[in-house]
């Protein structure tokens, strides 16, 4: 497939005088959407195009984090604030229950496994593909939308070299989650009903575990890239070094990356396009335990009066914390290291048979090698039971991708036909091995240096392959009417022989109303209507769900025995997603205003679920296709150039997305329990929380209360947790989300800002089970109650919190809607102020151009959520959003200073 990213064909305009600076050049935009090159005017797909200029408002190692707020319909969920962490990209909501819901990444035409480890500086543009017209040719992998990335290419003519230097400082940002100091904790502890007496000397601020375990993190980001070439040869070369220390002490992350994209015209009919990308990432982990920083009590100082670190298990003094934990004692010796090598190699070519027919071949190998080791010293608390431990793991992930395509594009007067036909093959082999030894010699990092015993080795290996034939054709009449259709016949090794093949399709229509003779609305420059429908399939996560599986984990008569682990399902098949989209695109007021509106309505059938079987069958699990889900919503995107002149330019942008999903059916229309206190029940949201409903505090005795739904449908309350009724009490899906952006340029100064918001939906603050526990965990630190909260103390009190009891066993801190909170927030995502040096100063610096900027990220968040950050839910293994706020590494507040120079 053609790796050209995004370009424009310019028709020479007449010379424009200064007073006519608002006049637009005659321009014909051409974009790559999926496998196709299309004129923007004939585009019938729901696509958001993000240029590299819009990707410069964040300083991060992760390309997925750059996308937040850049496109309607794309929900970016941060996976946390640790160095090297990545975000999850979800496009148009949740279309499945247990299957994968994250978007597919496609880099220069190649489908990737997960988020690619790319240097963001290498990216030229990104397309967000959202409907069947743009994704159907990707078949089962494109069911949840596509993030299509185009890296930079060389240029003909004058060569340029750019140097970018960026240094940032990250500050720990704990949101509204505040822990008690020693004085507050003393007052809380002594107020507990039936609490034992404690020394009054404890009523002092004590040791601040969180403050002493966190720091200002430092980021260094340096990039050098070269773009140049001649008429027949074009080259882009980029090198980057990124280093970040975490805001939690003891972790360092760095990455070296290199890319070369070359394009050489061997003959007028033959173009070769090799590409190589290499990244080496390493991490050094002597990281403090954020969990213990929250948990440990300020009355416990990790250091003795002589400065030595205390082992709470052998400490002669009093250690109040229940878990006797002092991570600093272990970190004297314990550490971890990791290394990752990513190699992406393409050998692409283009053969031109005629002006309208060419052959495009894309051939790729993606290789990832990862290893880590963790050393646990025998002197540490963690190593006391096994006399120390050394563990190592290795993984190898290799994918091959081949696409051989014929492309046809020809005008017949006012008619245009654009078509392609291709064969595609893709496979993946993944293997991981783990091993470890016990009883090690202190300081060793080699297995056979004195180890007494070994841990049982473990590992995983799986493979999967696809092949497909695909076809697409588009007909355009007089640049006014468009019709397009596509087919993909795909086979996957994830299914049995009878269900291995899937046929996916799409068709779409478009109409440029502004080109009609009857259209005489002068303020409107362009107005297009478009509609599409298609079928795509979602690939299940199990690679062998159609087969009987056996576990070789049991012993009988000193021999390995096989245990039936999974019942195969030879009829297992794709999740089928029927996608419908209608939209309109408008440009008005001399192209100052751009408006895009889309409505989508998608239905997923044959949901793939891991079902629990009766144990009497001898095997208790099987994958089945059961259930349906509907997902629909609206997307609005508006951009307006408020001022457009020689010295001042100001534009504003706004996008908002809303979606609603419902489970239409489940297996036998029964209750399907999911993880994270969630459930699938027909008629309800896919992310519904299923737990007891909190009914507040009994003002007479301060007891917690929950709702009971009686057999006759009436409702009552109970103070017995186990008698309360499990029911749906909310959902994680927001009502809407979006962003507001502004870009202001005044002569050589520029200002960019981006505000991101999400409204509605709920988040389960599981931390409150520990830190807002009503005395259930009296020897854990507790959170400071919000100003609007109060605790019951005497009969008649109207309180948000029940009576606090020492070693409370009333279960008021167990899962219920009490800890469900509003997940709404608004965040100043980024603010950037820059200055472009005048040419005279640049000449003195011996460069052709130079600029400087300062930038702030994650500057403030407006929310009612009492936890660390409602934005980081977090993501479960970076694939699905759980709506549960647990052990979150806070997203830091970042301040950056950067310089760019062009030679």
The helix content, as a percent range, equals under 10%
Oligomer: single chain
> Count of DSSP helices?
7
Largest beta-sheet details? 22 strands, antiparallel, barrel
| Rg result | 30 Å
Strand tally = 49
Q: What's the mean pLDDT score? A: 89
From the spread of the alpha carbons, the general shape counts as: globular
- β content, as a range? over 45%
Structural class: mainly beta
Cα separation of the termini:
33 Å
**Residue windows where pLDDT falls under 50 for at least 5 positions:** 1-27, 874-880
List the helices and strands and how they pair.
Blueprint: E1 6-10, E2 27-33, E3 36-39, E4 47-51, E5 74-77, E6 88-91, E7 104-107, E8 110-111, E9 123-129, H1 132-135, E10 146-151, E11 157-171, H2 182-191, H3 209-213, E12 217-229, E13 233-245, E14 251-267, E15 270-285, H4 290-295, H5 327-330, E16 335-352, E17 357-376, E18 389-412, E19 415-438, E20 453-477, E21 481-492, E22 501-512, E23 524-538, E24 549-556, E25 559-566, E26 575-588, E27 593-605, E28 608-612, E29 621-625, E30 628-644, E31 648-665, E32 672-673, E33 679-680, E34 688-692, E35 694-697, E36 704-709, E37 715-718, E38 726-731, E39 736-746, E40 749-759, E41 762-765, H6 768-771, E42 820-822, E43 825-836, H7 839-844, E44 849-857, E45 861-863, E46 875-876, E47 880-881, E48 884-885, E49 893-902
Structural notes for this entry:
- This protein has a 22-stranded antiparallel barrel.
- The radius of gyration is 30 Å and the shape is globular.
- It is mostly beta strands.
- The chain contains seven helices and 49 strands.
- Helices cover 4% and strands 51% of the residues.
- The two termini are 33 Å apart.
């Amino acid at each position: 497939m053609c790796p050209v990213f995004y370009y424009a064909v310019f028709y020479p305009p007449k010379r424009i005088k200064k007073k006519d600076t608002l006049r637009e050049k005659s321009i014909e935009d051409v974009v790559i959407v999926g496998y196709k090159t299309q004129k923007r005017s004939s585009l019938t797909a729901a696509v958001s195009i993000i240029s590299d200029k819009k990707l410069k408002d964040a300083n991060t190692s992760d390309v997925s984090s750059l996308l937040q707020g850049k496109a309607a319909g794309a929900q970016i969920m941060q996976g946390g604030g640790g160095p090297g962490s990545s975000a999850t990209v979800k496009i148009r909501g949740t279309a499945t229950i247990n299957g994968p819901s994250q978007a597919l990444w496609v880099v220069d035409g190649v489908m990737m496994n997960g988020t690619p480890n790319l240097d963001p500086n290498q990216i030229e543009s990104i397309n967000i593909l959202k409907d069947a017209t743009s994704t159907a040719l990707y078949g089962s992998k494109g069911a949840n939308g596509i993030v299509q990335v185009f890296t930079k290419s060389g240029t003909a003519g004058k060569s340029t070299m750019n140097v970018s230097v960026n240094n940032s400082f990250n500050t720990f940002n704990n949101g509204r989650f505040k822990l008690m100091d020693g004085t507050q904790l003393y007052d809380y502890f002594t107020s507990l009903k039936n609490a034992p007496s404690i020394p009054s000397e404890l009523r002092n601020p004590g040791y601040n575990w969180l403050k002493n375990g966190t720091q200002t993190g430092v980021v260094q980001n340096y990039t050098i890239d070269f773009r140049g070439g001649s008429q027949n040869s074009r080259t882009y070369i980029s090198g980057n070094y990124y280093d970040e220390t975490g805001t939690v002490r003891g972790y360092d992350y760095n990455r070296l990356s290199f890319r070369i994209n070359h394009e050489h015209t061997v003959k007028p009919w033959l173009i070769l396009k090799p590409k190589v990308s290499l990244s080496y990432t390493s991490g050094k982990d002597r990281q403090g335990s954020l969990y213990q920083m929250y948990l440990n009590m300020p009355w416990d100082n990790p250091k003795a009066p002589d400065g030595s670190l205390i082992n709470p298990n052998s400490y002669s003094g009093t250690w109040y914390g229940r878990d006797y934990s002092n991570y600093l004692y272990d970190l004297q010796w314990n550490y971890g290291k990791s290394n990752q090598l990513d190699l992406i190699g393409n050998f692409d070519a283009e053969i031109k048979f005629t002006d309208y027919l060419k052959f495009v071949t894309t051939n790729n190998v993606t290789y990832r090698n990862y290893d880590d080791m963790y050393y646990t010293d025998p002197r540490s608390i963690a190593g006391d039971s096994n006399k120390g431990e050394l563990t190592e793991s290795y993984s190898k992930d290799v994918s091959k991708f081949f696409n051989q395509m014929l492309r046809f594009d020809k005008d017949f007067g006012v008619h245009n036909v654009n078509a392609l036909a291709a064969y595609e093959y893709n496979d993946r082999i993944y293997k991981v091995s783990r091993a470890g030894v016990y009883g090690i010699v202190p300081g060793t990092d080699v297995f056979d240096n004195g180890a007494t015993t070994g841990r049982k080795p473990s590992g995983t290996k799986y493979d999967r392959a696809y092949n497909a034939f695909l076809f697409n054709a588009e007909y355009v009449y007089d640049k006014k009417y468009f019709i397009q259709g596509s087919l993909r016949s795909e086979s996957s090794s994830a299914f049995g022989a009878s269900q291995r093949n899937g046929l996916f399709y799409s068709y779409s229509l478009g109409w440029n109303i502004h080109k009609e003779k009857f259209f005489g609305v002068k303020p409107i420059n362009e107005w297009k209507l478009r509609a599409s429908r298609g079928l795509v399939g979602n690939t299940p996560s199990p690679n062998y769900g159609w087969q009987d599986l056996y576990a070789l984990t049991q012993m009988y008569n000193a021999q390995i025995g096989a245990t039936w682990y999974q019942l195969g399902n030879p009829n297992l098949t794709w999740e089928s997603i029927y996608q419908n989209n209608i939209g309109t695109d408008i440009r008005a007021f001399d192209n100052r205003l751009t408006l895009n509106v889309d409505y989508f309505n998608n239905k997923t059938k044959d949901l793939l679920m891991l079902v629990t079987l009766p144990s009497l069958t001898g095997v208790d699990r099987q994958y089945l296709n059961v259930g349906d889900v509907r997902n629909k919503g609206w997307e609005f995107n508006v951009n307006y150039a408020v001022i457009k002149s020689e010295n001042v330019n100001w534009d504003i942008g706004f996008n908002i997305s809303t979606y609603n999903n419902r489970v239409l059916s489940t297996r036998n229309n029964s209750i399907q329990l999911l993880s994270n206190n969630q459930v699938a029940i027909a008629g309800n949201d896919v992310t519904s929380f299923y737990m007891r409903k909190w009914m507040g505090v009994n003002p007479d005795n301060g007891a917690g209360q929950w709702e009971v739904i009686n057999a006759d449908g009436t409702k009552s309350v109970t103070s017995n947790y186990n008698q309360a009724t499990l029911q749906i009490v909310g959902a994680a899906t927001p009502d809407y989300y979006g962003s507001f952006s502004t870009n202001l340029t005044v002569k050589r100064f520029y200002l960019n800002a981006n505000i991101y918001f999400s409204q509605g939906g709920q988040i389960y603050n599981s931390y409150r089970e520990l830190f807002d526990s009503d005395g259930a965990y009296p020897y854990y630190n507790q959170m400071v109650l919000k100003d609007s909260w109060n605790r019951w103390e005497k009969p008649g009190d109207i309180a948000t919190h029940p009576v606090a009891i020492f070693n409370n066993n009333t279960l008021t801190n167990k899962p219920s809607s009490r800890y469900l909170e509003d997940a709404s927030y608004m965040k100043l995502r980024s603010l950037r102020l820059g200055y472009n040096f005048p040419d005279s100063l640049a000449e003195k610096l011996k460069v052709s151009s130079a600029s400087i900027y300062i930038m702030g990220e994650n500057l403030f968040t407006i929310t009612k959520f009492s936890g660390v950050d409602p934005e980081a839910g977090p993501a479960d293994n970076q694939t699905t959003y759980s709506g549960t706020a647990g052990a979150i590494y806070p997203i830091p507040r970042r301040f950056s200073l950067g310089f760019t120079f062009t030679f």
